[in-house]
Design a protein that fits this description.
The structure is a single chain. By secondary structure, the protein is of the alpha/beta class. The chain has helices at about 1-35, 90-95, 95-105, 130-150, 165-175, 200-205, 215-220, 250-260, 320-335, and strands at about 45-50, 55-65, 75-80, 105-110, 155-165, 185, 235-240, 265, 270, 280-285, 290-300, 305, 315. The protein has a single domain, classed as Alpha/Beta hydrolase fold, catalytic domain (Rossmann fold, 3-Layer(aba) Sandwich), CATH 3.40.50. It is built from nine helices and 13 strands. The strands form two sheets. Strands 1, 2, 3, 4, 5, 6, 7, 8, 9, 10 and 11 form an eleven-stranded mixed β-sheet that branches. Strands 12-13 form a two-stranded parallel sheet. The protein is globular. It starts with a helix and ends with a helix.
Length: about 325
């Protein structure tokens, strides 16, 4: 009886385990298919993998349709870093940056965080004490380098933009590899230097930590790699109704960048297009008139991509079109480089 019962239980256990494994494999397969499915719109959605100090990271590159480049012609590249809980495809669908790329003629790179590196899919921009943040930034730069080698990318016209955790990683990349970028965009991110670990990142998000704005502290916040270099112009986008990353981070971010570049704020202006959320905008310029920071605070916007696709998570269709604003900003930066 014991033998028969044991055998019966083992069969049931094996069946349950095998069935569970099949279900898990099916979910993984479905997720992979969804990730690799091209977002809406014309153009190529090219998959790749880059390897660096933090291991391997998948990415997708958007290539505009109908490219017929003259000999030696190269196109700009915008690196788009998703937020927590998103994939590169989610971010592409939300921001509709590919639609602008198709019209204007530039590449868009969508790196993707590995869930083994962060179970929530967040970029580890805050893990500066452990060195994990720097390793991840270097791995993302490996993806940029790989794309620049494989496709006709103009290395002198590369910009990086991110949402939330992606914004934090965008700032980290722009400070550690300042000479590689002509513009950086932080949408709903934590101020550089406000966090060095998971606990301090959560405190900064909730407004309980802000970086010191002294020149010495700013130098530490932006890393030694940024000292002695010219930081790329920064566009800060943040909603004043953000209940995930406190809006005060936007002002702190602008102040850190302005201190590092010796820029001063100009007059505030109000912008509104149609019935979209209005925005308050301040430009920070250096003594020679160079634009160092543009701070854009969007009234009524929560923790979401401004002007994004309504059907996507972390996306608010009622806000001004952040993707259009980003392209206008980086185009000016490309022209002044």
């Amino acid at each position: 009886m014991f033998t028969r019962a044991y055998a019966r239980n083992m069969r049931a256990l094996t069946k349950a385990a095998f069935g569970g494994g099949q279900r898990l494999a099916k979910r993984i397969t479905q997720a992979a298919v969804a990730r690799d499915k091209p977002p809406p719109g014309a153009g190529d959605w090219l998959a790749g993998v880059a390897v660096g100090p933090a291991g391997a990271r998948r990415y997708h590159l958007y290539r505009p349709p109908g490219l017929q480049l003259a000999a030696g012609q190269r196109l700009p590249l915008i690196v788009m870093l998703h937020g927590c809980g998103q994939t590169g495809r989610d971010f592409a669908a939300s921001t509709r940056m590919n639609r602008i790329a198709a019209r204007e003629g530039f590449f868009v790179l969508y790196p993707e965080q590995d869930l083994l590196a962060n179970s929530h899919g967040c970029w580890n921009w805050f893990e500066t004490r452990s060195g994990k943040a720097r390793a991840e930034a270097a791995t993302l730069m490996a993806a940029v380098d790989q794309v620049c080698l494989m496709y006709p990318v103009d290395r002198e016209r590369v910009a990086v933009a991110g949402l939330s955790a992606g914004a934090g990683m965008a700032a980290l990349m722009a400070t550690h590899f300042a000479s590689r970028f002509r513009a950086v965009v932080m949408h709903s991110g934590v101020a550089p230097g406000a966090a060095q670990s998971t606990a301090t990142a959560l405190a900064a998000m909730r407004g309980r930590r802000t970086p010191s704005i002294s020149a010495t502290a700013v130098g530490k916040a932006l890393s030694a790699a940024a000292m002695g270099t010219t930081l790329p112009p920064l566009l800060v986008l943040h909603g004043d109704a953000d209940n995930v990353v406190t809006p005060g981070n936007a002002h702190a971010t602008a102040a850190v960048w302005a201190t590092a570049t010796g820029a001063l704020p100009g007059d505030e202006r109000r912008l509104q297009r149609g019935r979209r959320h209005p925005a308050r905008v301040v430009d920070y310029r250096t003594a020679d008139g160079r634009l160092a920071v543009t701070l854009c605070e969007i009234a009524g916007l929560g923790h979401a991509w401004s002007g994004g696709t309504a059907s996507q998570a972390w996306s608010d269709a009622a806000g001004p079109d952040a993707s259009r604003m980003i392209w206008a900003f980086v185009t000016r930066s490309f022209g002044s480089s």
